[in-house]
Design a protein that fits this description.
Length: 335
Protein backbone atom coordinates (compact mmCIF):
# COMPACT_ATOMS: atom_id res chain seq x y z
CA UNK A 1 0.00 0.00 0.00
CA UNK A 2 1.27 3.47 -0.80
CA UNK A 3 1.82 5.73 2.17
CA UNK A 4 0.15 8.97 1.05
CA UNK A 5 2.17 10.94 3.55
CA UNK A 6 5.52 9.49 2.62
CA UNK A 7 7.93 12.32 2.86
CA UNK A 8 10.48 11.86 0.06
CA UNK A 9 9.35 14.40 -2.46
CA UNK A 10 10.42 16.09 -5.65
CA UNK A 11 11.19 19.77 -5.52
CA UNK A 12 12.61 22.31 -7.90
CA UNK A 13 11.33 25.22 -5.78
CA UNK A 14 13.89 27.78 -4.63
CA UNK A 15 12.93 30.48 -2.14
CA UNK A 16 14.46 33.55 -3.74
CA UNK A 17 13.09 36.38 -1.59
CA UNK A 18 11.24 37.04 1.65
CA UNK A 19 9.35 40.10 2.91
CA UNK A 20 7.08 41.00 5.79
CA UNK A 21 4.96 43.75 7.28
CA UNK A 22 3.15 44.49 10.53
CA UNK A 23 0.82 47.47 11.06
CA UNK A 24 2.13 50.41 13.10
CA UNK A 25 -0.45 50.39 15.87
CA UNK A 26 0.59 48.35 18.92
CA UNK A 27 -1.76 46.75 21.44
CA UNK A 28 0.12 46.06 24.68
CA UNK A 29 -0.86 43.91 27.64
CA UNK A 30 -1.38 47.15 29.57
CA UNK A 31 -3.91 48.24 26.91
CA UNK A 32 -5.74 44.90 27.33
CA UNK A 33 -5.85 45.40 31.10
CA UNK A 34 -8.12 48.38 30.35
CA UNK A 35 -10.44 46.28 28.15
CA UNK A 36 -10.88 43.04 30.12
CA UNK A 37 -10.14 41.61 33.56
CA UNK A 38 -6.57 40.43 32.94
CA UNK A 39 -2.99 41.33 33.80
CA UNK A 40 0.34 41.64 32.05
CA UNK A 41 1.72 39.00 34.42
CA UNK A 42 -1.03 36.47 33.58
CA UNK A 43 -0.70 37.01 29.83
CA UNK A 44 3.12 36.76 29.80
CA UNK A 45 3.14 33.71 32.05
CA UNK A 46 0.40 31.81 30.12
CA UNK A 47 1.26 32.88 26.58
CA UNK A 48 4.65 34.64 26.36
CA UNK A 49 2.98 37.53 24.50
CA UNK A 50 3.97 41.12 25.35
CA UNK A 51 2.31 43.02 22.53
CA UNK A 52 0.64 42.66 19.12
CA UNK A 53 0.34 44.89 16.07
CA UNK A 54 -3.19 45.86 15.07
CA UNK A 55 -4.43 47.08 11.69
CA UNK A 56 -6.12 50.48 11.50
CA UNK A 57 -9.84 50.68 10.75
CA UNK A 58 -9.09 51.22 7.06
CA UNK A 59 -6.36 48.61 6.75
CA UNK A 60 -7.36 45.12 5.60
CA UNK A 61 -5.50 41.89 4.82
CA UNK A 62 -4.88 42.88 1.19
CA UNK A 63 -3.11 46.07 2.34
CA UNK A 64 -0.83 44.05 4.62
CA UNK A 65 -0.04 41.76 1.66
CA UNK A 66 0.85 44.74 -0.57
CA UNK A 67 3.26 46.04 2.08
CA UNK A 68 4.92 42.64 2.66
CA UNK A 69 5.43 42.12 -1.08
CA UNK A 70 6.74 45.69 -1.49
CA UNK A 71 9.23 45.01 1.32
CA UNK A 72 10.31 41.80 -0.43
CA UNK A 73 10.74 43.55 -3.79
CA UNK A 74 12.84 46.36 -2.30
CA UNK A 75 15.12 44.17 -0.18
CA UNK A 76 15.81 41.58 -2.90
CA UNK A 77 15.46 43.81 -5.95
CA UNK A 78 12.75 41.54 -7.36
CA UNK A 79 10.23 42.22 -10.08
CA UNK A 80 6.84 40.62 -9.49
CA UNK A 81 5.16 41.46 -12.79
CA UNK A 82 6.18 38.09 -14.28
CA UNK A 83 4.76 35.99 -11.44
CA UNK A 84 2.71 33.01 -12.66
CA UNK A 85 0.66 32.28 -9.58
CA UNK A 86 -0.28 33.90 -6.25
CA UNK A 87 -1.41 31.97 -3.18
CA UNK A 88 -2.58 33.96 -0.15
CA UNK A 89 -3.10 31.93 3.02
CA UNK A 90 -5.57 33.79 5.22
CA UNK A 91 -8.58 33.31 7.47
CA UNK A 92 -9.39 37.01 7.35
CA UNK A 93 -9.79 37.96 3.66
CA UNK A 94 -11.14 41.46 2.97
CA UNK A 95 -14.08 39.71 1.27
CA UNK A 96 -14.93 36.04 0.62
CA UNK A 97 -14.58 37.00 -3.04
CA UNK A 98 -12.85 38.59 -4.79
CA UNK A 99 -9.89 36.83 -3.23
CA UNK A 100 -7.06 38.71 -1.56
CA UNK A 101 -4.74 37.05 -4.09
CA UNK A 102 -6.63 38.71 -6.95
CA UNK A 103 -6.21 42.08 -5.22
CA UNK A 104 -2.46 41.45 -5.01
CA UNK A 105 -2.46 40.69 -8.76
CA UNK A 106 -4.30 43.93 -9.47
CA UNK A 107 -2.20 46.09 -7.12
CA UNK A 108 1.10 45.04 -8.70
CA UNK A 109 -0.25 44.92 -12.28
CA UNK A 110 0.74 41.28 -12.82
CA UNK A 111 -0.66 40.40 -16.23
CA UNK A 112 -0.65 36.63 -16.71
CA UNK A 113 -1.16 35.06 -13.38
CA UNK A 114 -3.39 32.64 -11.49
CA UNK A 115 -4.54 33.52 -8.00
CA UNK A 116 -6.18 31.75 -5.11
CA UNK A 117 -6.79 32.26 -1.40
CA UNK A 118 -6.08 29.25 0.77
CA UNK A 119 -7.89 28.68 4.04
CA UNK A 120 -6.12 26.33 6.42
CA UNK A 121 -6.07 28.70 9.43
CA UNK A 122 -2.72 28.64 11.24
CA UNK A 123 -1.45 25.82 9.01
CA UNK A 124 -2.08 28.05 5.97
CA UNK A 125 1.42 29.25 5.18
CA UNK A 126 3.07 25.82 5.29
CA UNK A 127 0.15 24.29 3.39
CA UNK A 128 0.59 27.01 0.74
CA UNK A 129 4.29 26.20 0.40
CA UNK A 130 3.42 22.53 -0.08
CA UNK A 131 1.00 23.48 -2.88
CA UNK A 132 3.39 26.00 -4.44
CA UNK A 133 6.05 23.29 -4.57
CA UNK A 134 3.59 21.07 -6.47
CA UNK A 135 2.76 23.85 -8.96
CA UNK A 136 6.46 24.42 -9.66
CA UNK A 137 7.36 20.72 -9.90
CA UNK A 138 4.49 20.19 -12.36
CA UNK A 139 6.33 22.46 -14.78
CA UNK A 140 3.17 24.51 -15.36
CA UNK A 141 4.55 27.57 -13.53
CA UNK A 142 7.98 29.00 -12.84
CA UNK A 143 7.39 31.77 -10.30
CA UNK A 144 4.91 31.50 -7.42
CA UNK A 145 4.25 34.12 -4.73
CA UNK A 146 3.17 32.68 -1.37
CA UNK A 147 1.79 35.06 1.28
CA UNK A 148 0.49 34.41 4.79
CA UNK A 149 -1.51 37.41 6.02
CA UNK A 150 -4.10 38.15 8.68
CA UNK A 151 -6.10 40.94 10.25
CA UNK A 152 -7.29 38.82 13.16
CA UNK A 153 -8.02 41.93 15.25
CA UNK A 154 -11.11 42.46 13.06
CA UNK A 155 -12.58 39.09 14.10
CA UNK A 156 -11.44 39.04 17.72
CA UNK A 157 -13.96 39.43 20.52
CA UNK A 158 -12.36 42.09 22.73
CA UNK A 159 -14.79 41.29 25.53
CA UNK A 160 -13.56 37.67 25.77
CA UNK A 161 -10.38 37.63 27.87
CA UNK A 162 -9.55 34.04 26.90
CA UNK A 163 -9.09 34.91 23.21
CA UNK A 164 -8.43 38.67 22.86
CA UNK A 165 -5.05 38.42 24.57
CA UNK A 166 -3.73 36.09 21.88
CA UNK A 167 -4.25 37.52 18.41
CA UNK A 168 -2.44 40.08 16.26
CA UNK A 169 -2.12 41.21 12.63
CA UNK A 170 0.70 40.87 10.09
CA UNK A 171 1.87 39.46 6.77
CA UNK A 172 4.86 37.57 5.36
CA UNK A 173 5.74 36.58 1.79
CA UNK A 174 8.03 34.07 0.07
CA UNK A 175 8.89 34.21 -3.62
CA UNK A 176 9.38 30.65 -4.91
CA UNK A 177 11.01 30.05 -8.29
CA UNK A 178 11.71 26.92 -10.34
CA UNK A 179 15.41 26.11 -10.28
CA UNK A 180 17.28 25.41 -13.47
CA UNK A 181 19.17 22.52 -11.90
CA UNK A 182 16.09 20.59 -10.80
CA UNK A 183 16.86 20.38 -7.08
CA UNK A 184 14.84 22.61 -4.78
CA UNK A 185 14.61 23.81 -1.19
CA UNK A 186 11.55 21.79 -0.11
CA UNK A 187 12.85 18.43 1.10
CA UNK A 188 10.03 16.78 3.06
CA UNK A 189 6.41 17.41 3.94
CA UNK A 190 3.65 16.06 6.16
CA UNK A 191 -0.01 16.92 6.69
CA UNK A 192 -2.81 15.76 8.94
CA UNK A 193 -6.42 16.82 9.51
CA UNK A 194 -8.74 16.14 12.44
CA UNK A 195 -12.05 17.61 11.26
CA UNK A 196 -14.01 15.93 14.08
CA UNK A 197 -12.40 18.46 16.44
CA UNK A 198 -13.22 21.43 14.18
CA UNK A 199 -15.72 22.92 16.65
CA UNK A 200 -12.93 23.46 19.22
CA UNK A 201 -11.56 26.46 17.27
CA UNK A 202 -13.59 28.30 14.65
CA UNK A 203 -14.75 31.48 13.06
CA UNK A 204 -18.34 31.06 11.90
CA UNK A 205 -19.75 32.12 8.55
CA UNK A 206 -22.98 30.68 7.08
CA UNK A 207 -23.81 27.66 9.21
CA UNK A 208 -24.75 27.64 12.88
CA UNK A 209 -23.29 24.17 13.47
CA UNK A 210 -20.07 22.30 12.72
CA UNK A 211 -21.03 18.65 12.33
CA UNK A 212 -23.35 17.98 15.30
CA UNK A 213 -21.93 20.86 17.31
CA UNK A 214 -23.94 24.06 17.59
CA UNK A 215 -21.64 27.08 17.31
CA UNK A 216 -21.81 30.79 18.02
CA UNK A 217 -22.73 32.38 14.65
CA UNK A 218 -21.10 35.74 15.35
CA UNK A 219 -18.24 35.67 12.83
CA UNK A 220 -15.65 36.04 15.58
CA UNK A 221 -12.93 33.63 16.69
CA UNK A 222 -14.21 31.18 19.28
CA UNK A 223 -12.08 28.53 20.92
CA UNK A 224 -12.00 26.00 23.68
CA UNK A 225 -8.54 27.05 24.85
CA UNK A 226 -7.86 24.06 27.06
CA UNK A 227 -8.87 21.53 24.38
CA UNK A 228 -6.83 23.28 21.70
CA UNK A 229 -3.86 23.37 24.07
CA UNK A 230 -4.19 19.63 24.80
CA UNK A 231 -4.49 18.81 21.11
CA UNK A 232 -1.46 20.93 20.23
CA UNK A 233 0.89 19.45 22.79
CA UNK A 234 -0.10 15.86 22.02
CA UNK A 235 -1.24 15.55 18.38
CA UNK A 236 0.92 18.33 16.94
CA UNK A 237 3.98 17.02 18.78
CA UNK A 238 3.22 13.61 17.27
CA UNK A 239 2.95 15.19 13.81
CA UNK A 240 6.32 16.92 14.15
CA UNK A 241 7.86 13.58 15.16
CA UNK A 242 6.19 11.84 12.20
CA UNK A 243 7.70 14.39 9.82
CA UNK A 244 11.17 13.81 11.27
CA UNK A 245 10.82 10.01 11.30
CA UNK A 246 9.65 9.92 7.70
CA UNK A 247 12.57 12.17 6.76
CA UNK A 248 15.09 10.09 8.76
CA UNK A 249 16.11 13.29 10.56
CA UNK A 250 16.27 14.05 14.26
CA UNK A 251 16.03 17.39 16.05
CA UNK A 252 19.83 17.39 16.25
CA UNK A 253 20.07 17.26 12.42
CA UNK A 254 17.81 20.30 11.99
CA UNK A 255 19.15 23.80 12.56
CA UNK A 256 15.90 25.67 13.14
CA UNK A 257 12.45 24.65 14.37
CA UNK A 258 9.75 27.17 13.43
CA UNK A 259 6.40 26.04 14.85
CA UNK A 260 3.35 28.25 14.40
CA UNK A 261 3.50 30.95 17.10
CA UNK A 262 0.27 29.97 18.88
CA UNK A 263 1.62 30.70 22.31
CA UNK A 264 4.93 30.26 24.11
CA UNK A 265 3.70 27.53 26.43
CA UNK A 266 2.64 25.43 23.45
CA UNK A 267 6.02 26.06 21.79
CA UNK A 268 7.87 25.02 24.97
CA UNK A 269 5.76 21.86 25.29
CA UNK A 270 6.36 21.01 21.61
CA UNK A 271 10.11 21.43 22.08
CA UNK A 272 10.09 19.22 25.17
CA UNK A 273 8.20 16.46 23.35
CA UNK A 274 10.11 16.57 20.06
CA UNK A 275 13.71 17.07 21.22
CA UNK A 276 14.22 20.63 19.96
CA UNK A 277 15.87 23.15 22.26
CA UNK A 278 14.40 26.61 22.65
CA UNK A 279 17.74 27.95 21.34
CA UNK A 280 17.09 26.35 17.96
CA UNK A 281 13.47 27.54 17.86
CA UNK A 282 12.27 30.70 16.13
CA UNK A 283 8.98 32.38 16.95
CA UNK A 284 7.19 35.68 16.48
CA UNK A 285 4.99 35.31 19.56
CA UNK A 286 6.53 37.84 21.95
CA UNK A 287 6.07 41.03 19.92
CA UNK A 288 3.38 40.01 17.42
CA UNK A 289 1.13 37.52 19.29
CA UNK A 290 -0.61 34.75 17.34
CA UNK A 291 -0.84 36.00 13.75
CA UNK A 292 -2.11 32.67 12.36
CA UNK A 293 -0.97 32.21 8.72
CA UNK A 294 1.53 35.07 9.09
CA UNK A 295 3.33 33.79 12.19
CA UNK A 296 5.85 31.49 10.50
CA UNK A 297 7.08 33.91 7.81
CA UNK A 298 7.22 36.70 10.43
CA UNK A 299 9.42 34.50 12.66
CA UNK A 300 11.68 33.57 9.75
CA UNK A 301 11.97 37.11 8.45
CA UNK A 302 12.88 38.39 11.92
CA UNK A 303 15.75 35.88 12.00
CA UNK A 304 16.77 36.69 8.42
CA UNK A 305 16.99 40.39 9.29
CA UNK A 306 19.01 39.56 12.41
CA UNK A 307 21.37 37.43 10.31
CA UNK A 308 20.62 34.34 12.42
CA UNK A 309 19.75 31.97 9.58
CA UNK A 310 22.69 30.86 7.43
CA UNK A 311 22.79 29.42 3.92
CA UNK A 312 22.29 25.65 3.66
CA UNK A 313 20.74 25.35 7.10
CA UNK A 314 17.86 22.90 7.56
CA UNK A 315 14.59 24.28 8.91
CA UNK A 316 11.45 22.50 10.07
CA UNK A 317 8.37 24.73 9.63
CA UNK A 318 5.19 23.46 11.29
CA UNK A 319 1.78 25.10 11.00
CA UNK A 320 -1.21 23.90 13.05
CA UNK A 321 -4.59 25.20 14.16
CA UNK A 322 -8.22 25.57 13.02
CA UNK A 323 -9.54 22.57 11.15
CA UNK A 324 -7.98 21.11 13.20
CA UNK A 325 -5.18 20.99 10.67
CA UNK A 326 -1.42 20.42 10.59
CA UNK A 327 1.04 21.06 7.75
CA UNK A 328 4.79 20.70 8.12
CA UNK A 329 7.75 21.02 5.79
CA UNK A 330 11.50 20.64 6.03
CA UNK A 331 13.38 23.08 3.83
CA UNK A 332 17.01 23.86 3.09
CA UNK A 333 17.58 27.62 3.26
CA UNK A 334 19.57 29.00 0.34
CA UNK A 335 18.71 32.69 0.37
C1 LIG B 1 -6.14 30.40 26.27
C2 LIG B 1 -5.11 29.89 27.27
C3 LIG B 1 -3.91 30.83 27.28
C4 LIG B 1 -5.73 29.88 28.65
O1 LIG B 1 -4.77 29.40 29.59
P1 LIG B 1 -5.14 28.24 30.60
O2 LIG B 1 -4.00 28.03 31.49
O3 LIG B 1 -5.62 27.07 29.78
O4 LIG B 1 -6.29 28.90 31.36
P2 LIG B 1 -7.70 28.26 31.69
O5 LIG B 1 -8.60 28.34 30.51
O6 LIG B 1 -7.46 26.91 32.33
O7 LIG B 1 -8.17 29.27 32.77
C5 LIG B 1 -7.50 29.41 34.04
C6 LIG B 1 -8.12 30.58 34.78
O8 LIG B 1 -7.65 31.79 34.17
C7 LIG B 1 -8.74 32.60 33.81
N1 LIG B 1 -8.41 33.38 32.64
C8 LIG B 1 -8.64 33.08 31.33
N2 LIG B 1 -8.18 34.06 30.57
C9 LIG B 1 -7.64 34.99 31.37
C10 LIG B 1 -6.99 36.21 31.16
N3 LIG B 1 -6.81 36.72 29.93
N4 LIG B 1 -6.54 36.90 32.22
C11 LIG B 1 -6.72 36.44 33.48
N5 LIG B 1 -7.32 35.27 33.74
C12 LIG B 1 -7.77 34.56 32.70
C13 LIG B 1 -9.87 31.64 33.58
O9 LIG B 1 -11.12 32.28 33.70
C14 LIG B 1 -9.65 30.62 34.68
O10 LIG B 1 -10.13 31.11 35.88
P3 LIG B 1 -10.88 30.13 36.91
O11 LIG B 1 -9.84 29.12 37.31
O12 LIG B 1 -11.28 31.06 38.00
O13 LIG B 1 -12.01 29.52 36.15
C15 LIG B 1 -4.67 28.44 26.93
O14 LIG B 1 -5.73 27.54 27.13
C16 LIG B 1 -4.14 28.28 25.57
O15 LIG B 1 -3.09 28.77 25.26
N6 LIG B 1 -4.86 27.54 24.68
C17 LIG B 1 -4.48 27.40 23.32
C18 LIG B 1 -5.03 28.57 22.57
C19 LIG B 1 -4.38 28.72 21.21
O16 LIG B 1 -3.19 28.73 21.10
N7 LIG B 1 -5.22 28.85 20.18
C20 LIG B 1 -4.79 29.04 18.86
C21 LIG B 1 -4.22 27.76 18.32
S1 LIG B 1 -3.69 27.95 16.70
Amino acid sequence: MTDRNQSEIRSNAIITAIGSYVPERILTNADLEKLVDTSDEWIVQRTGIQERHIASDHQFTSHLCFAAVQDMMERYNKDVTDIDYIIVATSTPDAVFPSVASQVQSHFGIENCGSVDLQAACAGFTAAIQLANGLLVSGAYRKVLVIGAETLSKVTDYSDRTTCILFGDGAGAFLMEASGSGSGNVLHMYSKTDGARGHQLYRSSLASAIGDHVIQPNGLIVQNGREVYRWAVSHVAEGVKQLMTRSSLSAADIDWFIPHSANMRIIEALCERTGFSLDQTLSSIKLFGNTSAASIPLAIDGAVKAGTIKQDQLMLLYGFGGGLTQAGIIIRWSL
